[in-house]
Specification:
single chain, 375 residues, alpha/beta, Rossmann fold, 2 domains, six-stranded parallel β-sheet
Length: 375
């Protein structure tokens, strides 16, 4: 067993944290503890599942003074001394600099997940020593390409492992799916493209009468209010704002379409949730990971230009799919997801990368890890 300390800097239950929960429960040959901020949603979920939690990290360090970063670094050291890991995994590589002092002091290898494009540039700026940073896990081909564009990361092995996804239990009772109901799920922030979606819903005569859109998520209050003010120009389309929803799969089962208008998207776990729930994704071709997986699966509609008019046409086409066409997209997505995102296959790949990076395993002559499947 490879003793693995996972450092999670936020502790929310967004896509990266939910992927972490699915992953560590299916990772063979790993004994895991998670260092995360205290009193978070993630801490509660992990404890429910019997995962050891060391709540010594500090959330939101980018907004905190330097002494708080020092405090967080001491927290990681405290977690290491308590758990005695063979290797440290960063669930988000933005925690690299804070984790590095403990890893250096104790001689521990580090493997970082890169889950957002910005973290590839962040890691590159750190000029990491490949003797310390033993590997980088990219959650999509788009992220892998971003990493490989930085010369200072060229000596660090990159492993593509798509986010693990455990399908939800089958629904009990009848499900009423509305053919003209669109969901948009995610943090409400400019990069996620909700502003483009609202403008698309206002395009005259683009969408049939009776179309409704459910916007799920929260964000900075001023920005959310600005978007809500746009609703006055959306015309006959009914807009509903639900705020943050912890488990979106039941909600997605009532929708025929998932709109994912992100300008850039490293992967898009909500697309996996949409396939699981039976909704057809509509994604922007230039977004990166979301377009990558929908195109690879032939599992939805990819629109070419990030304009309200182009998105409106794509949504209209999705609404007008007949049952057989919609079911084909969803089934294609589920087949791709089973091949690339099953907890078992992702867990094995994750275990192999962490095991290969650990000192204890390498001393015993363990083979190097196989590259996980790509699309």
């Amino acid at each position: 067993m490879t003793r693995t300390l996972i450092v999670e800097s936020a502790g929310d239950l967004w896509g990266s944290e939910r992927a972490l929960i699915d992953l560590i429960q299916a990772a063979p040959d790993l004994e895991v503890a998670v260092c995360c901020p205290p009193r978070t949603l993630l801490e509660a979920e992990l404890k429910k599942r019997g995962v050891r939690v060391l709540p010594y990290f500090i959330a939101g360090l980018h907004q905190k003074p330097r002494w708080r970063r020092l405090q967080a670094a001491i927290g990681v050291l405290r977690a290491c001394l308590s758990f005695r890991p063979d290797v440290i995994n960063l669930n988000q590589s933005g925690a690299y600099r804070v984790t590095l002092p403990a890893a250096t002091l104790l001689g521990l290898p580090v493997v970082g997940h890169v889950r957002i494009f910005e973290d590839a540039a962040y890691l590159a700026r750190q000029n990491p020593d490949p003797r310390r940073l033993k590997g980088i896990i990219a959650i999509s081909g788009a992220i892998e390409k971003e990493i490989r564009g930085f010369k200072s990361l060229s000596a660090v092995p990159v492993h593509r492992i798509y986010d693990s996804y455990a399908p939800a239990p089958p629904a009990t009772g009848a499900i009423k799916r509305a053919a003209r109901r669109i969901a948009c799920v995610g943090r409400i922030t400019p990069i996620k493209g909700q502003e483009v979606l609202l403008a698309a819903l206002a395009v005259a005569d683009a969408l049939p009468e009776g179309t409704e859109c459910l916007i799920v998520g929260d964000g900075e209050a001023d920005y959310v209010q600005r978007l809500k003010a746009m609703v006055r120009g959306v015309g006959p389309v009914r807009i509903e704002w639900s705020g943050f929803v912890r488990y979106v799969e039941p909600l997605l089962r009532t929708c025929a379409i998932l709109a994912c208008p992100s300008h850039r998207e490293p992967l898009g776990r909500v697309i996996l949730e949409a396939w699981d729930a039976g909704a057809v994704p509509v994604v922007y071709a230039g977004a990166g990971g979301s377009a990558e997986i929908v195109s690879a699966a032939d599992g939805g509609i990819v629109y070419e230009e990030q304009t309200p008019e182009c998105l409106a046409r794509a949504l209209s086409a999705a609404i007008r799919l007949n049952d057989r066409e919609a079911e084909r997209f969803v089934e294609n997505g589920r087949v791709w997801m089973a091949a690339h995102c099953s907890p078992e296959s992702c867990g094995r790949a994750f275990s192999a990368v962490l095991g290969g990076a650990s000192k204890r395993v390498s001393r015993r002559g363990a083979p190097s890890t196989a590259i996980p499947t790509s699309p």
